[in-house]
Amino acid sequence: MAKGDTGSGEVWDPFGTLRRALWIGGGQWAGKSTVSQLLALRYGLTAYRYDYHDARGHNDRRIARRIRLGQPPADPDPDVTWVNTTPQDMAAETLAGFPVRFEWALDDLRAMFSGRPIIAEGWGLRPELVAPIAGSLRQIVVMVPTEAFRARQLRELARAAAVGHDVSDPARAQHNRLERDRLVADDAVRSARRLGIRVIEVDGTLDAAAVADIVADHFRPALPPLEDHGMDQVGRHATR
């Protein structure tokens, strides 16, 4: 029996959190975190940030899994991960690991209860993984950056412009990382379109509040009534 499976083909969801959740998946640097934050402020939602939990809260599970598989518990040498490899191999490894990491995210979400839907965002919230547990495909959206917007993010976001590891060849590591991200995003788009899930290509012509409006319109059937929840000025502007 798969972890989280009740035995009847249904995923264990003790508080109905997973079925009611709103999901934003897609590519790196598309503005998923910003949009989810704006919608959380606007509608009084609870935001779950996959990347944060995956990088920090799940490390003990990552180590335990390596030990079970007979692998060294420590992270691989950064050069092995980022330099002495190819973007294709990196993308394949990332995609192969997403199902396991998704189960860890589901465990986080199962423990949460909210009177309003939880909005979950992150590149590991893959369309083919989310679709079977979401209440409706209208509760899922995939955001991906265009090439021009990805280039702009690299210019303007310090965290996007460099690999955060000590490697022997930073330029090659960054090239591999960017190409991997492009391949993973392209795969998410193919998966979403195969399943009939909405894809939003972010090209930078709209600000984050306007993109949040588009996502909110897609999520409309599952969103609570719009109220003022202490939104900042950007959030207020977006709802006028």
Provide the CATH architecture: 3-Layer(aba) Sandwich
CATH class: Alpha Beta
Summing up helix and strand content along with how strands pair, one would put the structural category as: alpha/beta
Quantity of strands, as a count: 5
Counting DSSP H or I runs of 4 or more residues, the number of helices is 11
Rg for CA atoms: 18 Å
List keywords for this structure.
single chain, 240 residues, alpha/beta, Rossmann fold, 11 helices, 5 strands, 51% helix, P-loop_NTPase
Q: How do you describe this structure in short?
A:
The protein is of the alpha/beta class and 240 residues long.
What does this protein structure show overall?
The chain has a single domain (17-227), classed as Rossmann fold. It has eleven helices and five strands. Mean pLDDT is 89; it is low at 230-240. The chain has a five-stranded parallel sheet with strand order 2-3-1-4-5. The chain has 240 residues and is an alpha/beta fold. Helix 2 (32-43) packs across helix 11 (233-239) and helix 6 crosses helix 9 (170-195). InterPro entries: P-loop_NTPase (IPR027417).
